[in-house]
């Protein structure tokens, strides 16, 4: 292919990518959705050189929220002719080691979460010093950009938490617990801090649980409900924890209501059935998609989405008013 044709093909591919990104960012239901197979409904593959990009997250495999992030990343990789190397570890130092391994293997770009910024920020700087562009997503909004990442995709956790607290106030809640399933996670702590700030109608306290052991989570929430029957709201920070909280409430004949951050297909069913009142959605599929697509755009055309400012994918509410529109997408694995 001649240089002229190469440029023309690149321009066309970037145009398609930018159109998809704008549609995704503006859609009230979260952007590009999977309409067949695992490719997110992509019409074709970019005619640009194949490169390897590493995605390194801080969560264990099998978590339904992170499955959505990975699916979005894989959809972008398929469209952009990218070989995506996905790895994860929920311990900051070990996650940092995975980032360093990606740097050592000379990947073309790195997409990383920063739930533990003290461990990951030095690796982000090492990557950028080596000429490897980095996108940060889901957590580490401020720390990632300060460390040299070109973009951040996710929600502002404090804003999301404040929004949740304000809604609880408007709904008349009086005593709530905020269930933290991973101690030390800056994103989760910020959610609870924001919720306390926005919840002016009563009191809220944190309840730490071991999110990797759901029977233990159920027992801990049950014990709290038994010790304080005045608790009327359980605010959880992830869909699996919310569903476990429902079990705790039912087994203790509590009248407490469950509200949560983040969704999965089972959580959507729980909202439809009235077991969970509402969820704050940060669009994980979109986060994974944009984190990868941004790297492709930068590598091929030096585009930066957001102009160096965080690109927010949430918060928005999923509740009885819009659950039917979301349910089909959730069953398809993209919401």
Automatic annotation (TrEMBL):
<dbReference type="GO" id="GO:0030288">
    <property type="term" value="C:outer membrane-bounded periplasmic space"/>
</dbReference>
<dbReference type="InterPro" id="IPR028082">
    <property type="entry name" value="Peripla_BP_I"/>
</dbReference>
<dbReference type="InterPro" id="IPR050555">
    <property type="entry name" value="Bact_Solute-Bind_Prot2"/>
</dbReference>
<feature type="signal peptide">
    <location>
        <begin position="1"/>
        <end position="24"/>
    </location>
</feature>
<protein>
    <submittedName>
        <fullName>Sugar ABC transporter substrate-binding protein</fullName>
    </submittedName>
</protein>
<dbReference type="Pfam" id="PF13407">
    <property type="entry name" value="Peripla_BP_4"/>
</dbReference>
<keyword id="KW-0732">Signal</keyword>
<comment type="similarity">
    <text>Belongs to the bacterial solute-binding protein 2 family.</text>
</comment>
<dbReference type="InterPro" id="IPR025997">
    <property type="entry name" value="SBP_2_dom"/>
</dbReference>
<feature type="domain" description="Periplasmic binding protein">
    <location>
        <begin position="54"/>
        <end position="302"/>
    </location>
</feature>
<dbReference type="GO" id="GO:0030246">
    <property type="term" value="F:carbohydrate binding"/>
</dbReference>
